[in-house]
Amino acid sequence: MAEKRPAEDEVDDVKAKKRWQVFAHATSIIKVYVGKDKVDYQVHESVLVQCSWFKKCLSSGMREQQEKKIDLEEDDADDIDILLRWLYGEKEVNVERDILRVASAYNTADKYRLPELQNALIDTARKICVAHRLNPREAMIVWGGAPEGSKLRTLMVNQLHYDICTSSEEYKSEGEKVGPYGRELITLMEEKPDMAHALYWKMHKWANTGNRNRQQTPVNPGTAGACFYHVHVDGKRCA
């Protein structure tokens, strides 16, 4: 089993040294170095090979198999920490209210083909959006970091659409009372035209089909069926 993480006030010190080391004699230990700072994780091989990406590295005669070492220089240590904890059986993703951290971890889970972790992370993102209104600036960052067709992009557009329709005053960008998110929405439209285009058509479609009587509100992505935002392997839907 993995050692418990240090207390919150010790986190910075731990990051500067080694994080979350695992010592056991039952299986081989693989050294995993993450990021340019080469944050060091020591992980059971039997845990890593639950992920097909790591299994391939450690079973195909590659250098990683011979040296029992994997370098993940392009990844973020916090994202890999979430990924490894998931492989060790910690199925509750605890990132408090940081939508950007969730999105970054989601993209990492996508990279390493862990759809169940992706689904847990997007459920966490939806909960955050229910508790705290989505900031257009953060939505823009999430959109920019996600690949085309990502469920994260769908969630960002749908959540902004819902928030604008239900709290339009907060998104006003002109007049005497400029909403707290008004200027950020303008920035989004200027800097992420592809996202602005998707948002426009979402609102246009709703205005012409889902809101004919002008009294309805869009479905809240945070409380709607989770399956819509989930990744389904081999076309299998959620149970």
Automatic annotation (TrEMBL):
Residues 33-121 form the BTB domain. Gene3D superfamilies: Potassium Channel Kv1.1, Chain A. It comes from the Eukaryota. InterPro entries: BTB/POZ_dom, SKP1/BTB/POZ_sf. It comes from Cladophialophora chaetospira. This is BTB domain-containing protein. SUPFAM superfamilies: POZ domain (SSF54695).
